[in-house]
């Protein structure tokens, strides 16, 4: 992983656009099976000179922040021997399939409940009583 990041973010030696000073620092941290990248700027105090300025040096995060979740690293471009495989990675397709299965189970449960309710209502249906039509508005008494 370290070699991969060095090749991606490193500046080639004797590059004509590279500068002979350092004013930014990239921090790479591996946590939670992810690579967290932070961009810091080195800030020197303006009122101090020489070695005193180096002692008062601070890092200020200027961004952008990045988080990479490596799934697989291949020996070649998009193919070849697998150098790294993330065992904690779960495909979004797999998550969607699980969600669909869970939702289909909800639907089947809903249909079963509805069938049980209709059977219960039919089984315990009340008989017509002598006062059922008292408040009907059809005019017949």
Provide a descriptive summary of the structure in words.
The model has no long low-confidence stretch (mean pLDDT 84). The protein is built from 3 helices and 6 strands. 32% of the residues lie in helices and 23% in strands. Strand 5 and strand 6 form a beta hairpin. It is of the alpha+beta class and 141 residues long. It starts with a helix and ends in an 18-residue tail after the last helix. Strands 1, 2, 3 and 4 form a 4-stranded antiparallel sheet that branches. Strands 5-6 form a two-stranded antiparallel ribbon. The chain is elongated and about 105 Å long.
Topology diagram in text:
Layout (H helix, E strand, L loop, with lengths): L1 H8 L14 E8 L2 E10 L7 H5 L2 E4 L4 E3 L3 E3 L7 E4 L6 H32 L18
Antiparallel strand pairs: 1-2, 2-3, 2-4, 5-6
